[in-house]
UniProtKB/TrEMBL annotation:
GO molecular function, one term: S-adenosylmethionine-dependent methyltransferase activity
Gene3D superfamilies: Vaccinia Virus protein VP39
InterPro entries named in the record: 23S_rRNA_MeTrnsfrase_RlmA, Methyltransf_11, SAM-dependent_MTases_sf
Domain of life (superkingdom): Bacteria
Transmembrane region(s): none
Keyword line: Methyltransferase, Transferase
Native source species: Kibdelosporangium phytohabitans
CDD domains (UniProt xref): AdoMet_MTases
GO annotation terms (biological process): methylation
Methyltransferase type domain: residues covered: 52-139
Name the UniProt record assigns to this protein: Methyltransferase type 11
Amino acid sequence: MRSFDELVAEADAAPTEGWDFSWFEGRATEARPSWRYQRSMGDRMAVARAALDIQTGGGEVLAGVPERPPVCVATEAWPPNVAKATALLHPLGTAVVADPEEPPLPFADGAFDLVVSRHPVKPYFGEIARVLRPGGTYFAQHVGPASVFELVEYFLGPLPDETRNGRHPDLERADAEAAGLQVVDVRTERLRMEFFDVGAVVYFLRKVIWMVPGFTSAAYLPRLRELHERIAAGGPFVAHSSRTLFEARKA
């Protein structure tokens, strides 16, 4: 078995831009939602005329659909991801716009008949409704409530209920309806995750930066060492991600 120091050093050195999770192969697993988001998104892209992908990350999900509409645009805030998404999506005819996560979106009212997003930091339904044409669709996979909180609370301790329920689908439904959208489908699933070594935990928390804000291996070295020993003695660390399929339509 590789040493604690070797595992942590390797994870600290690995690049984190984009949403390619192939680094985890053989080191961590996560079950996938039953609705197969990328395939379902691709079905909607194939019949759209103009589509927007909000917070595209490195563009991997959008690039993986078989067909994109004649007008296709993606936004992203983090500069390393902007560069990666541009290199991936421009050859496919998709423009990438560097844009903050907060409103406003840099597009005219009613510019798109389809808006999609996979794991937005926060869905700003007022802006989504504004850029959708009448009859247009918002189709997204959100991070659900208390996602991977077994791991988060291992480092941060117990969190208050308002934090655990901050992404509850009932709250998101209410926000969408308040923005004038008709919610047509909301489904949430909890999915088993396993981390087989402490390096996978370090890399995950470096990549998904909102889980443990400000995370560095140096700041949490004692807890990481305890986790390394726990995995060595008892097997993988088990957590559960939470995913919500969210579909709404502009009247």
